Amino acid sequence: MPDQQAPNDHVVPYVFELGGAKALHFSINEVQSRMLVDDPWALDLEYTRTMMGFLLFVPQPRRIAMIGLGGGSLAKFCHHHLPSAHIKVVEINPHVVDLRQVFHVPDDDERFSVILGDGAVMVQQEPDSCDVLLVDGFDPYGLPDELSSQHFYDGCRAMVSEGGLMVANLHRDHPGFDALVDRIRRSFDNAVLVVHTPDKDSTNCIVFAARDDTFGTCRPGVVRAPKGLGNKATNQLLASFSLVMAALMQHRRGAARDAAQEPSCDA
After folding, report:
1. What's the pLDDT tens digit per position in 22-37?
2. pTM to 2 decimals?
3. Which of 136, 173, 189, 199 is an active site residue?
């Protein structure tokens, strides 16, 4: 899965440290990733905690694939708190990969790897290869067309195994936001949850898309910690789990309402 672009074709990010946090930037106006210096494995940004809501539906994933490394927040969290999962991260920008040690991204080993390559190519070449696919691949100009086309989302569905999920980070102020969500709905047969993060300083919106009846595996009601997840990780994620659960309940109410409005075939 080689990247066809030379290193000089990619923007060089920089690291900015302030107030006990270290952030990855392409420009001063946009934070790509942020790490707490005293707790490198914590998820400091709300949208990353919301993306981990996949654990409500796939509590013990065996294979996790990620498009976009950034500062490695999600990769580190999964590596640290999901010890039975094999994790593969694909990042197209070699300068981002070069900063992995700055952000305490683990070295490659038998269950963790960071690959320099194109996520848009990967999803077309590796069907049924992961239980969870996390898509967070922004460049200095926003969301690339290659990671937001109908063809791409069709490939994401094919890459996710039976009972699995794709989780995508989008920005709700993107001029084509509604069209992007519609593409995901088409690719995943409308099995989609849209979760808006509550952070007033963020425009992130997390879209969960299920390969099959994955959402049906989650029982409504009180949010419970996924089996096997430690207390420290659970405490970080409970508020975000509640957000995802609320979106699930709204999704189910909408599905029930649509079913009730379908015309009867009785004579």
Report:
1. 999 888 777 889 999 9
2. 0.91
3. 136
